[in-house]
């Protein structure tokens, strides 16, 4: 004869509940293990990184490294100063090159006004003033040169600043002619 178990249905449901609880516990244990392992690995990495930071800080605070760092800072400061100086000089150079009051045309125009009896000692251009110093065999040649300079388009005004016979070789006149150049600001 066979025994009939009227509670078998309830026992199967209990076994299924126990099986599902076992799966949940196993999953929770697995997640917990992953969290603990991750915590251990990250703690070890933090500890080793802190040790590396301490090691690097010790190396950086060494006297020879500090000396090299100070020297590098001084060199960087000098580089900054020189860069500013270079940029200022570049600006100044471009401004000066734009003025261009001494050109080949100006020198050729002046050369065309020189009589044969005149020779130069000095030619100086300062801002918009041209100063010509030289010697001549006659006063007329100096006057002719002044007249020729006044005719030039680039010369606004020309005058003989000095004419002296005593300061030169006998029979020659030393002179100083000043001219104002047009178009120079």
UniProtKB/TrEMBL annotation:
The chain crosses the membrane at residues 21-41. It comes from the Bacteria. Signal peptide: none annotated. Coiled coil: none annotated. Keywords: Membrane, Transmembrane, Transmembrane helix. The keyword Membrane applies. InterPro entries: Extracell_DNA_Util/SecSys_Comp, PilN. Pfam families: PilN. This is PilN domain-containing protein. It comes from Clostridium weizhouense.
